[in-house]
Amino acid sequence: MKSMNRLRCAGTAILLAMGSVVPVDAQVSLPGQASAIPCEVGSYLMADGTTLDIGPGESGQLRWRRLDGRTGALTLKGDGRWTSTLGWTDRPDGHTVTIYDCGRGGIRFDDVAGRLQPLIQVDTRFQGSGVVLVGRLTLPPGRARVPIVVLIHGAEHESALEDYALQRQFASQGIGVFAYVHVRVSGWMPRCARGPIAVMQVRALTRCERQLTDTQSESV
Asked: Where are the domains of the chain?
């Protein structure tokens, strides 16, 4: 019961911080970014019942991922047709991906067709202890209550909001995901801020624990 209360408290804090709702394939970029997320990025439900994630790759490329860990880099060959290389190698793996109308017209992975899933995306900014964070909540389609996973961002140079495929993969399986950029923002150029953010997280958890203790005391 106590663990469930913690989850409710964390979920409430996330929902209170949320901004406006936009489709997951909408282009949301931070000020100062060189380019928007490729329009093909998204989670696709395939005709065989599996899901396929298409995410950003190296410059000019995309990357496909399966839930079992298989992945490949995609290079555009024209007319929406992409060829794949195995994992993080340069070796062709024989897979071909065709994406129609930036995903809005569907996708074909080899001979299997698929369609873009209408995931829900919520972008927000929040701060604590002088640290500004940028977050994104990704939810499955519909209005049903779902569990939420919080992806903790480390000190990478890349943005979790762009590069974390798990936010779409979890959502495609009915699990909401909250991801955030774990950096101090100064003119939208990141500087590490692990200490202040850790303090903020501990304070938030402490407040939540106090609220739970007060509630339990009142109910006795």
From this structure: 2-24+119-213, 42-116
The string of pLDDT tens digits covering residues 107-117 is 999 999 999 99
How many Å apart are CA 208 and CA 5, to the nearest integer?
9
Look up the pTM and report it. Answer: 0.72
Identify which of 186, 194, 120, 187 has the alpha carbon closest to the alpha carbon of residue 153.
Answer: 194
If you write DSSP's letter for every residue of 54-92 in order, what string do you get? EEE-STTEEEEE-TTS-EEEEEEEETTEEEEEETTSSSE
Tokens for 193, please give them: 């801020």
Q: What are the pLDDT digits (tens) for 43-62?
A: 999 999 999 999 999 999 99
By the 10 Å C-beta count (0-12 exposed, 13-18 middle, 19+ buried), 27 is classed as: exposed
